[in-house]
Amino acid sequence: MTAEMNKETLGFQTEAKQLLHLMIHSLYSNREIFLRELISNASDAIDKLRFAALADESLLEGQGDYRVQVDVDPEAKTISIDDNGIGMNRDEVIEHLGTIAKSGTAAFLQNLSGDQKKDSQLIGQFGVGFYSAFIVANRVEVHTRKAGDDAGAGVLWESHGESEFSVEQRDKVGRGTRVTLYLKEGCEEFADDYRVRSVIKKYSDHISVPVMMLESEPPAAEPEEGAEPAAPQYKAVNEATALWTRSRTEVSDDEYKAFYRHVSHDFDDPLTWSHNRVEGKLEYTSLLYLPKRAPFDLWNRDMARGLKLYVQRTFIMDEAEQFLPMYLRFIKGVVDSNDLPLNVSREILQRDGQVESMRSALTKRALDMLDKLSRQEGDDYAEFWKQFGEVLKEGPAEDFANREKIAKLLRFATTHTDTPVQDQSLEDYVSRMGENQDKIYYVVAENFNTAKNSPHLEVFRKKGIEVLLLSDRIDEWLMGHLQEFDGKPLQDVARGNLELGEESEEEKAEREQLAKQSEGLVERLAKVLESSVAEVRASGRLTDSPACLVVGEQDMGAQMRRIMEAAGQPVPESKPILEVNPHHPLLEMLDQEADEDRFADLASIVFDQAQLAEGGQLEDPAAYVSRLNKLLLTLSGR
Ligand SMILES: Nc1ncnc2c1ncn2[C@@H]1O[C@H](COP(=O)(O)OP(=O)(O)OP(=O)(O)O)[C@@H](O)[C@H]1O
């Protein structure tokens, strides 16, 4: 086959093309990051080979000195990043450098606004990777050969970063990948030795393989007369020790942050981190990071999650999911075990007792890290909560053992502040509880305003009893699993009979009298609404509204019911209880209504309105409108 014949020109996948275009335009002001991304890829490729060589040493081709080499040529205006890692074959090159494999990319791209500053942050969160080369280059060549293949299996990939790339066979003697960038006008600084060294120091110091450059300084000693001057040598520019193996006191915040970007592919700094070495029965080191921003695919079931796993400093796998529970899926980092076998697989991880112990210890570490952050001054915890609060709310259901710890980390909107901001802890709530109050009250609704204006809150507001205002989809599920905090049961104010611990003798007598007085009305209502409600009763919880719906003690809550219905799940039949406020003028009017038809119409309207007030949907909205209109017309006497 001639070179011409095997040269293929292919188009980038649409999404790759879009991302490329956006990246070039929105990341230009931050263009030096391309070097971090390419060195990061080179180091990953070396990690992969190191791991593959555990099973098949021949892949090393007798050469086990791993290194990344960076060369600059100011005249040709090029920079190249060369690794002796795993390399790629032709199919892999096409797949990895022509498409974007992550699911949800298209949806993500639609979120971009065209505002450069905002977009650059979004793109950063997506992980810019290889394509960032085109921020500074108008032509990129990748010459690669997979470890273990013949020199003849080398591939040359080339693109101008527009819509196409080409691939062709090109012999390559050494295994691994060499990426060469032909720099754009205005980006010549990246062919400058001094500038490139400083960027490597800044971003890649923590990378555990040496990143080498030709030494720039002349050798210290003058060569002896007649002798050849010593040729310049490649020397490591970076520190090249795995960061997590160093002691905490030796590592600066900047180094921790740079390492975070390497493991997470995030653009931003982390909010906080926790670095620990455990010795004793189990020996391992962990470095956990809390990101600042949720990834675009946080709610995608296939989202990449988990820690980078190393065994005795050898990289084993990315996204080892077994070390943290699902509700902590936003935590990034590294775990390096001294005890696990080097040939450990995902299957083994799933049933290994040691992994189980490490998982529970790491879960505690992560929760402690959050606890510590929550006690610090400043907005970091609030920021965390905004990004990840809803995920943490999955915790009590998934991890019963740590329920109390998680409960302390939760934040809510409450009637104490009456704003939608979720910033009050259960501890805060308990500290404000009245002497006779023995429960923590909450109301659940579709959205904050419905919760805040719920008729169920009227008596609580009147008595100054605080109620948590819940409106996240997961809230009812959360409360169902939490059940109590600090020994105090959590009580849905829209459920069951309301017994406020604070009822005085006087109030009790008043309530009983009310029930008696309204017996007739309640009975009439129960009769006409028989098919819609389980029971009608006189309410002690309403002051301003005519009526509200209450869920039976054992029945499914309204929010959960709506979610299940929307998801097409079967929902058990159950009717709500209608509580009415006999002091309300509407109910007084109803009581006086002698015409049974009009009574039935009005009763239905009261019932439908109670449903609307809690954010529910009417079964027959047209019937409601026509009843209401009929009544409205009677106002004008027509
Ligand atoms: N130097 C290299 N050696 C071998 N394979 C590489 C190299 N650089 C890139 N690749 C392959 O190309 C793929 C895509 O790289 P790219 O940098 O775009 O994304 P990534 O590293 O997977 O993730 P991210 O976009 O979050 O950085 C990599 O997953 C890897 O398989």
Automatic annotation (TrEMBL):
<keyword id="KW-0547">Nucleotide-binding</keyword>
<feature type="binding site">
    <location>
        <begin position="125"/>
        <end position="130"/>
    </location>
    <ligand>
        <name>ATP</name>
    </ligand>
</feature>
<comment type="function">
    <text>Molecular chaperone. Has ATPase activity.</text>
</comment>
<feature type="binding site">
    <location>
        <begin position="103"/>
        <end position="104"/>
    </location>
    <ligand>
        <name>ATP</name>
    </ligand>
</feature>
<feature type="binding site">
    <location>
        <position position="177"/>
    </location>
    <ligand>
        <name>ATP</name>
    </ligand>
</feature>
<feature type="region of interest" description="C">
    <location>
        <begin position="563"/>
        <end position="638"/>
    </location>
</feature>
<keyword id="KW-0067">ATP-binding</keyword>
<comment type="similarity">
    <text>Belongs to the heat shock protein 90 family.</text>
</comment>
<dbReference type="InterPro" id="IPR019805">
    <property type="entry name" value="Heat_shock_protein_90_CS"/>
</dbReference>
<dbReference type="InterPro" id="IPR020575">
    <property type="entry name" value="Hsp90_N"/>
</dbReference>
<feature type="binding site">
    <location>
        <position position="41"/>
    </location>
    <ligand>
        <name>ATP</name>
    </ligand>
</feature>
<feature type="domain" description="Histidine kinase/HSP90-like ATPase">
    <location>
        <begin position="30"/>
        <end position="187"/>
    </location>
</feature>
<protein>
    <recommendedName>
        <fullName>Chaperone protein HtpG</fullName>
    </recommendedName>
</protein>
<feature type="coiled-coil region">
    <location>
        <begin position="497"/>
        <end position="524"/>
    </location>
</feature>
<dbReference type="GO" id="GO:0051082">
    <property type="term" value="F:unfolded protein binding"/>
</dbReference>
<dbReference type="GO" id="GO:0005737">
    <property type="term" value="C:cytoplasm"/>
</dbReference>
<keyword id="KW-0175">Coiled coil</keyword>
<feature type="binding site">
    <location>
        <position position="102"/>
    </location>
    <ligand>
        <name>ATP</name>
    </ligand>
</feature>
<comment type="subunit">
    <text>Homodimer.</text>
</comment>
<feature type="binding site">
    <location>
        <position position="346"/>
    </location>
    <ligand>
        <name>ATP</name>
    </ligand>
</feature>
<feature type="binding site">
    <location>
        <position position="88"/>
    </location>
    <ligand>
        <name>ATP</name>
    </ligand>
</feature>
<dbReference type="Pfam" id="PF00183">
    <property type="entry name" value="HSP90"/>
</dbReference>
<dbReference type="InterPro" id="IPR020568">
    <property type="entry name" value="Ribosomal_Su5_D2-typ_SF"/>
</dbReference>
<feature type="region of interest" description="B">
    <location>
        <begin position="347"/>
        <end position="562"/>
    </location>
</feature>
<dbReference type="InterPro" id="IPR003594">
    <property type="entry name" value="HATPase_dom"/>
</dbReference>
<keyword id="KW-0963">Cytoplasm</keyword>
<dbReference type="GO" id="GO:0140662">
    <property type="term" value="F:ATP-dependent protein folding chaperone"/>
</dbReference>
<keyword id="KW-0346">Stress response</keyword>
<dbReference type="InterPro" id="IPR001404">
    <property type="entry name" value="Hsp90_fam"/>
</dbReference>
<keyword id="KW-0143">Chaperone</keyword>
<dbReference type="GO" id="GO:0005524">
    <property type="term" value="F:ATP binding"/>
</dbReference>
<feature type="region of interest" description="A; substrate-binding">
    <location>
        <begin position="1"/>
        <end position="346"/>
    </location>
</feature>
<feature type="binding site">
    <location>
        <position position="37"/>
    </location>
    <ligand>
        <name>ATP</name>
    </ligand>
</feature>
<feature type="binding site">
    <location>
        <position position="83"/>
    </location>
    <ligand>
        <name>ATP</name>
    </ligand>
</feature>
<dbReference type="InterPro" id="IPR036890">
    <property type="entry name" value="HATPase_C_sf"/>
</dbReference>
<dbReference type="GO" id="GO:0016887">
    <property type="term" value="F:ATP hydrolysis activity"/>
</dbReference>
<dbReference type="InterPro" id="IPR037196">
    <property type="entry name" value="HSP90_C"/>
</dbReference>
<dbReference type="Pfam" id="PF13589">
    <property type="entry name" value="HATPase_c_3"/>
</dbReference>
